[in-house]
Write a structure and sequence with these properties.
This protein is 38% helix and 16% strand. The protein is built from eight helices and seven strands. α4 links the parallel β3 and β4. α5 runs parallel beside α6 and α6 crosses α8. The mean pLDDT is 93. Keywords: Acyltransferase, Membrane, Transferase, Transmembrane, Transmembrane helix. This is 1-acyl-sn-glycerol-3-phosphate acyltransferases.
Length: 238
């Protein structure tokens, strides 16, 4: 979208429920994103306007939470993220995360279950919760989803019955490569984000191992196929 339109959109997105620090971060970063990138958003109508919903996205860069937040806000939803708990101890960033209602994850500890319960509670309260199932950047040389995924998104979806919307982004790996310390602003990068139809999990019930594994397969298949359509390429066979 044109820069002026992207900046103007900032004033029409939801503000209530963002918290002061999260709101301030959005207001500071959004104009920079609009000026230094070309944002192309499609499929926003796939996101329910209200009620609990799960978003599941591929992961390419540290820029992904920024661009996906912009996309979700443009679709009328405030995303809540699950992020490693250590980020809450970073000055200022901790305030942004707390104010935004995001959910800390104590990885590889007995407290990790608290994040699952927090996500369930948020969705049952009508929130939009964002997951990056790979829990890290793709390590595929062509940036296809490739990592061993975490099953939290499937467990939460099956527990709550909330719709799971696949969201894919493309271009953030050029804006802020995984090994870079600073964004590469020039030449101006194009960021594509698109949402797909809800993943059909209606025949799965309960949170037994088999149901969770099948749900994860369907979610990752939906993400990969949507990314293939966005890129107009065939994904690797594996």
């Amino acid at each position: 979208m044109p820069t002026w339109r992207a900046v103007a959109l900032m004033f029409r997105v939801p503000r209530r429920g963002r918290g002061f620090w999260f709101s301030l971060a959005i207001d500071l970063i959004w104009p920079l994103l609009a000026v230094f990138t070309r944002l192309r958003f499609r499929g926003a109508e796939k996101l329910p306007k209200s009620g609990g919903v799960v978003l599941a996205s591929n992961h390419l860069s540290f820029a992904d939470p920024v661009t996906v937040t912009a996309y979700s806000l443009a679709a009328g939803r405030i995303p809540r993220y699950l992020a490693k708990a250590s980020l809450w101890r970073v000055p200022i960033l901790g305030k942004v995360l707390t104010g935004g209602g995001h959910i800390p994850v104590e990885r590889n500890t007995a407290q990790a279950r608290h994040a699952y319960l927090g996500a369930v509670k948020a969705i049952e309260g009508g929130e939009c919760v964002m997951f990056f199932p790979e829990a890290g950047f793709s390590d595929d040389q062509d940036h296809w989803p490739s990592r061993r995924v975490k099953n939290g998104v499937a467990r939460v979806a099956l527990e709550t019955g909330a719709p799971v919307i696949p969201v894919v982004n493309w271009g953030t790996h050029r804006l802020l490569p995984a090994t870079a310390k600073f964004p590469k602003l020039f030449p101006r990068k194009t960021i594509d984000i698109v949402a797909g139809d809800p993943v059909d999990l209606s025949d799965l019930s309960g949170t037994d191992r088999e149901s969770i594994e099948e749900a994860m397969k369907r979610i990752m298949h939906a993400i990969t196929e949507l990314l293939a359509t966005l890129r107009n390429e065939a994904p690797p066979t594996r």
